[in-house]
Amino acid sequence: MAILKAGDPAPEFSLPSTPDQRVSLSDFRGQPVVLAFYPADWSPVCGDQMALYNEMLAEFRKQKAQLLGISVDGVWCHAAFAEDRKLHFPLLADFEPKGAVARNYGVYRSAEGLTERALFVIDGEGIVRWSYLSPIGVNPGADGILDALDAMTNQEK
Amino acid sequence: MALRPPVSEHDHSAGSASAPLVLVEYGDYQCPHCAAADPVVHAVQKALGKDLRFVFRNFPLAEMHPAAEPAAEFAEGAAAQGKFWEAHDAIFAWSRRHGPPSLGPSAFAAIAQTLSLSPEQLEADVSGHRYLERIKNDFNGGIRSGVNGTPTFFINGSRFDGAPTFDELSQALRALL
């Protein structure tokens, strides 16, 4: 299945973000959601994708957008990673059944059992407004996300 | 990936404004890769001479590197005292010598003394966050330009995705001459 694209309805999900909390897409009805799939916690590079987005939370907040990271790592792994990197946004565990949400969004790599590095901007009605599939080794940055959020804001005006 | 805020007179810039080549770096003072890249940039500047203008913009990963933003504020404060590049190089040199985690108030005090900068003024600039908005503007411009880590270089407005080594940088620059 190919990656979902602009205009597609974003499949609902409910995934654990901590050992005792779950996050659903529908929790954020009425506001944009930035859904960032990434292959794995503990990527060894300085300034990796999640670290970069972590530095941009104020910017996302300005756009009233909620950022959610998502990988197949389990909640305890996410907790350790988030604490080590001082991440201040939810990391969702697409862990059991493994990669089910990634499959629904067309961004699962079954050969490796990892999610792709892929970005979705979803509007307040749950419609995908922008998506991007990055080469797995390349941090896609955030310019595309901000452009998509801007385009949505401008359309509403 | 293109540089969105174009180079302007507000940037910290070394070399001729009419140089045919413009190298822009987005960097973080507490990033070890940026510290390593600083002498490389100097070597590239020396090799290309008057053909190259170099611009540095702040991209502090403040959550990851707690001293990155204060270091950028320190360098901006030094700029107000006419010594931006001296402070810029001294911070990276400190980091290479003592390690990035050692950057902080005592390192800044030592650098200020070496460079004969007014320590009271610098302290006031850093703790009063006088230049923080400028730094955040640099950061946001970097995000909009597709900066995805540090250091990220742009050559004549296009992102350079090679390794920040002397050979790769100077080759990419010379190719445009």
Largest beta-sheet details of chain B: 5 strands, mixed
Q: Can you say what the CATH homologous superfamily of chain B is? A: Glutaredoxin
State the end-to-end CA separation of chain B: 21 Å
Please give the alpha-carbon distance between the first and last residues of chain A. Answer: 35 Å
- The share of residues in helices of chain B is 40-55%
Residues in β-strands, percent of chain B: 5-15%
- State the largest interface: A-B, 22 and 19 residues
Low-confidence stretches of chain A: none
Count of domains of chain B: 1
Q: What is the structural class of chain B?
A: alpha+beta
- As laid out across the biggest beta sheet of chain B, the strand order is 1-3-2-4-5
| Helix-strand sequence of chain B | EEHEHHHHHEEH
Assign the CATH superfamily of the domain at 1-13 and 40-127 in chain A.
Glutaredoxin
Low-confidence stretches of chain B: none
In the CATH scheme, the class of chain B would be Alpha Beta
* Strands of chain B, count: 5
CATH topology of chain B: Glutaredoxin
Assign the CATH topology of the domain at 1-13 and 40-127 in chain A: Glutaredoxin
- How much of the polypeptide of chain A forms β-strand, as a percent range? 25-35%
If you had to describe this structure to a student in words, what would you say it looks like?
The complex is a heterodimer of chains A (157) and B (177). Chain A has 157 residues and is of the alpha/beta class. Chain A has a domain at 1-13 and 40-127: Glutaredoxin (3-Layer(aba) Sandwich), CATH 3.40.30.10. Chain A has 5 helices and 9 strands, in the order βββααβαβαββββα. Chain A has helices at 49-54, 57-62, 75-85, 100-104, 143-156; strands spanning 14-18, 21-24, 33-37, 66-71, 91-93, 108-109, 114-115, 117-122, 128-134. In chain A, strands 5-4-3-8-9 form a 5-stranded mixed sheet. A two-stranded antiparallel ribbon of chain A has the order 1-2. Chain A has a two-stranded antiparallel ribbon with strand order 6-7. In chain A, a hairpin with a 5-residue loop joins strand 8 (117-122) and strand 9 (128-134). The longest helix of chain A has 14 residues, at 143-156. Chain A is globular and about 40 Å long. The model of chain A has no long low-confidence stretch (mean pLDDT 94). With 177 residues, chain B is of the alpha+beta class. Chain B has a single domain, classed as Glutaredoxin, CATH 3.40.30.10. Chain B is built from 7 helices and 5 strands. A 5-stranded mixed sheet of chain B has the order 1-3-2-4-5, sandwiched between helices. In chain B, helix 1 (32-48) crosses helix 7, helix 2 (68-80) crosses helix 5 and helix 3 (84-98) packs across helix 4 (105-114). The longest helix of chain B has 17 residues, at 32-48. The radius of gyration of chain B is 15 Å and the shape is globular. In chain B, 44% of the residues are buried. The mean pLDDT of chain B is 96. The chains are: A alpha/beta (157), B alpha+beta (177). The A-B interface holds A 45-49, 51-52, 54-56, 59, 85-88, 138-143, 146 and B 1, 28, 31-33, 61-64, 139-140, 143-150.
